[in-house]
Description:
CATH class of the largest domain: Alpha Beta
Strand content: 15-25%
Distance between the termini: 72 Å
CATH architecture of the largest domain: 3-Layer(aba) Sandwich
Oligomer: single chain
Amino acid sequence: MFFCTECGAETTKWSGKCPTCGAWNSLKETSRIIGKKKKRNLQVFANLEGLEKIKPELLKDIELGAQSRLSSNIKEFDGTLGGGIVPGMVVLIGGEPGIGKSTLMLQVANKIAEMEKKVLYVTGEESKEQIKLRSERLKCNSDNLFLLCTTEAEEILDYLNDFSFVIVDSIQSVHSNSIENAAGSIAQLRECTALFTSIAKKYNISFFLVGHVTKEGAVAGPKIIEHMVDTVLYFEGETQNQFKILRATKNRFGSTNEIGLFEMLSSGLKEVANPSQLFLNMDEQKIGTAVGSVLEGSRAFLVEVQALVAHASYGTSQRVSLGFDHRKLALILAVIEKCLSFNLKNNDVFINLAGGMKALEPALDLAIVAAILSSFKETALPQNTMLIGEVGLNGEVRPVSQTEKRLKEAVKLGYQNIVIPKKTKNIKTSLKTYKISHISELFQILFSKK
Length: 450
């Protein structure tokens, strides 16, 4: 069989283009598992002795336990999961090499073990001496944290009777003896993930699977792995940057797009107490900078937008954006030229979201317009001013969702002035509010000599 790594489709012959999703060069050869699979699974489940046999129950008669979620005592991690660890959940954690996946998982395992919960940390890539050195650096010395160095899935299952939390680092290194393919192949990834998922659901054992990320930024292996697990987390951030972002892209037990912010120190990952300060420069207001707000899941963050408008020295002007969609930047520049009669055709325009933030939210449109105007006019915006609003193609400023949550974050950080769309309703805040309906009204508010 040939398996598409992008959409999971199967076909009997290879082609350069996937017939289902149209992706190029994504079909990989694999083998189909047929026969004796049910019998082998029965033998695997027989290793888990002393557990009750599952039987159908009435949905209305099912009662939630007193503690349906378990907190890891790491607020940023729990918030990304949607409030804590659900018994029987399977979590896939991806990230670039050296980003801190193993460090985070070892810290989470130690926190859970400190609550009198037995945790099994399975590693197939590092020796026990390497894990011991990391644990001493991170001060992970709980009496309930156990280490198992193996790459065989069947050997892992032999020890699951005593543990309710299992961390597999990494899923690419684990293989099943019932398949002839090498570890990390498509067949092995599918089989091992399906095996761990079925056991997690049947016996309420929480699994955390660590996955590598390819050069394209996707979790290595077939895309179907993401559909087999309950939650997919990505650990983002430059390896040279001390700040890391844990982002949820799929979550069956909570909202998606939740993020957790961590700072990498010599003693491990530390939670960031005030995340908005990562993306803001609290000093004197600079030319070409404006402050906007973005929502990540249920949290609001203030982000500093930096703009640079300079004369094009090499003929064709450049449009470069970091952390923001370059197509949206081209749209905003066209609106500015049309509605404000600004000539930006002969100027290079660069946009950057400070702190390595990435956002696609339309609420940043008004802040980006203000930053571009500030750089073009070489005039700094008023101190302690934040802008929220979506900009339409005719220059109109439209309201955005959850404005009050954004304003509460601005009040907490000491901002005094806020520019919002005129049609925003039911806003109660102590901030000085300026309501506008068109981007041309920004001049009177931001660049008035008064």
